[in-house]
Amino acid sequence: MELEKLELPDLRAAEQALMSVGADPRGVAIMKEKAVFRVVKVEGVPIRAANLIKQTFLAHGAEAAVSRKTASFSAETTDMILMGTLAQYRAILARLREQPFGLRELSAALEKFLWENS
Description:
Layout: H1 11-20, H2 25-31, E1 37-46, H3 47-59, E2 63-65, H4 69-72, E3 77-85, H5 86-96, H6 103-116
Helix pairs in contact: 1-2, 3-5, 5-6
């Protein structure tokens, strides 16, 4: 057995890697978004929204880093680092679209940003 580190920067690379091992094309369509990991920085997020975002990311097995002042509501805004696969982002964004505090707009912006760069 041999090990090889793969870097899959976009959906096309993920699809090619999955096809290279003989995966079924229907499976590739399902798996390719699970193979692409994205880290996104969002600046100036209102604290109430940041708490909802963090909870939603954690609920989907992803991660969101915030200022330590977020939990105590001792700041008005925070910058965030969001981390997850494209599949996780897809599920998360669907949930965030249903939330208040400007999350519908942020969700739309993130969706456009992620899939234009994938």
